[in-house]
């Protein structure tokens, strides 16, 4: 899959999955705009891509704020002349007893994880609809949209919302030739992979914990022009963990 001459925006791209996604798009020839609230890490990630021969730029962005998202899209369009792909990856966790979560904490995770997806998609689509071939949006949800552990209500609500808003946007933006899909990652290790235990890997049918590049390759698939028949889906990438039955011995 070739993404030469494509402009790709990745939010939450300073670290983890977003960083891996941005790097792979650059390897495939795209110009990548990394958006994040962590300025130092974001600039380092963009510089690393350029040092490897890729094309990248960093834009300081607080995805909770509508003016920041509007400016991000305008900056990308003004600099490169088109926006082709948006990866809505930015997010944060909220794991705290529902008895103790403040309304400020609740609103913060909702705005960071869910409202940002709607705002980012809307603003990017305003430019994508100008393209002859339209565009593609991928929203990073989570397997926590369909399964939970205690004290994760805010995070679960946002990830479930991302799955739902994805198929709604797929319907709304179809007339503008824009595909909208979601990816629900399972356990993706973004730190030191060598520190994982054998038991960690054995929880998966794949016999291993996931890596950022597993999600990055799925983004390529969902945004490739050859795959414009795929829209409105939630692609679960979890090594089969949500399909493995576990019994106490």
From TrEMBL:
PROSITE patterns: ADH_SHORT. One of its GO terms (molecular function) is oxidoreductase activity. The keyword Acetylation does not apply. Coiled coil: none annotated. Keywords: Oxidoreductase. One of its GO terms (biological process) is bile acid metabolic process. SUPFAM superfamilies: NAD(P)-binding Rossmann-fold domains (SSF51735). Belongs to the short-chain dehydrogenases/reductases (SDR) family. This is NAD(P)-dependent dehydrogenase (Short-subunit alcohol dehydrogenase family). It comes from Mesobacillus foraminis.
